[in-house]
Design goal:
Blueprint (H helix, E strand, L loop, with lengths): L1 H23 L15 H14 L8 H17 L3 E9 L2 E10 L6 E7 L9 H20 L6 E6 L13 H11 L4 E8 L29 E6 L3 H12 L6 E6 L11 H6 L4 E5 L21 H17 L2
Parallel strand pairs: 3-4, 3-5, 5-8, 6-7
Antiparallel strand pairs: 1-2, 2-4, 6-8
């Protein structure tokens, strides 16, 4: 009986280690990368344009929403990308995603996106002007360092309510268009809030007790979020991001039962069967001003945002 008990304990321990390895990716070796410098000042200027000059930019403020799309289109064009608008109509109103294409026309596609709309009348500096600012500066890097594989940077509309998690999200329209044409997608990355950081103890919270025994209690890292079946993609992305700067990168592969795991544009690509991950500062698990009027540009850390952009550029390089 004692031997059977020990065997059961050993089996349970092995299962725990396997689940831990799949979920947390603790032994990923950083892949050294030399990413070009990214200007924190330029990131700050983009965030201020979107969250101040063009505030509010929601479905209730179509003039500003269109002006935000125009701004992204202009910045994408300045990078040297081939830029296109993807228009669609909802209840008689026209909306658009803005797409910047780099690299060859043929081949397995890498998609990186961020939504440019904001929640109701909030400034939306972190959510999600930060992600769009990162996307614009990533376009600048790709224009200067053309990738050898096709890359699409997509600024999405209508991620926020009332279309959140519906088929009317801009990302859902883009994902369906790729599926309809049979386009092979190697990976999609959603840049969802990348600007809020804190070195204070207990500045990072988690959805379940005990997660702080595995992950840091300080919000001083960038997170990579994926499904269990995107395990290998997470390893590759984490290795590239960890090797690009000194900004810590932590990851989790789990089921969408954890609140927030599928709360962004990557979910639309999951629905179409594409591998997709979210790159995030963890949103409401860290930023106390999520979806509030205090989500303003002066509260973001542009130095660390710049490191996130460098890390995502390293991911692009790792897929070539």
């Amino acid at each position: 009986m004692k031997r059977v008990f020990l065997e059961l304990v050993l089996a349970a321990f092995v299962v725990f280690l396997a689940l831990y390895a799949v979920t947390v990716q603790p032994l990923v070796r950083p892949l050294p990368a030399k990413s070009p410098p990214v200007s924190p000042e330029r990131l700050a200027a983009h965030v201020r344009m979107l969250s101040e000059t063009l505030h509010p930019r929601s479905i209730e403020n179509l003039t500003n929403l269109e002006a935000a799309a125009d701004y992204v289109h202009k910045e994408f064009t300045a990078s040297g990308a081939a830029v296109a608008d993807q228009w669609f109509e909802i209840q008689g109103e026209k909306y658009r995603n803005v797409i910047a294409r780099f690299g060859p026309a043929e081949g397995s596609l890498l998609v990186i996106g961020a939504h440019y709309d904001s929640f109701e009348t909030t400034p939306g500096a972190d959510d999600n002007a930060s992600g769009v600012a990162g996307l614009i500066e990533l376009a600048r890097l790709l224009g200067q360092n053309p990738p050898r594989r096709p890359v699409e940077l997509v600024a999405y509309t209508l991620e926020e309510p009332p279309h959140f998690r519906t088929e009317q999200m801009g990302s859902a329209h883009h994902a369906r268009s790729l599926s309809a044409t049979g386009r092979e997608v190697s990976l999609m990355l959603a840049l969802e809030m990348i600007g809020w950081y804190s070195d204070l103890p207990d500045s990072q919270s988690y959805p379940f007790p005990g997660m702080d025994l595995i992950y840091p209690d300080r919000g001083n890292f960038i997170a990579i979020i994926g499904r269990l079946n995107d395990w290998s993609q997470t390893r590759k992305v984490k290795a590239a991001m960890a090797g690009a700067s000194d900004l810590p990168a932590h990851s989790i592969n789990t089921l969408p039962v954890i609140p927030g795991v599928d709360f962004s544009d990557h979910q639309a690509y999951w629905n179409e069967g594409f591998p997709a991950l979210m790159i995030t500062d963890t949103a409401f698990y860290r930023n106390p001003h999520y979806h509030e009027a205090e989500d303003t540009a002066d509260k973001l850390d542009y130095q660390r945002m710049a490191k996130v952009v460098q890390a995502v550029f390293a991911v692009v390089q790792s897929y070539e």
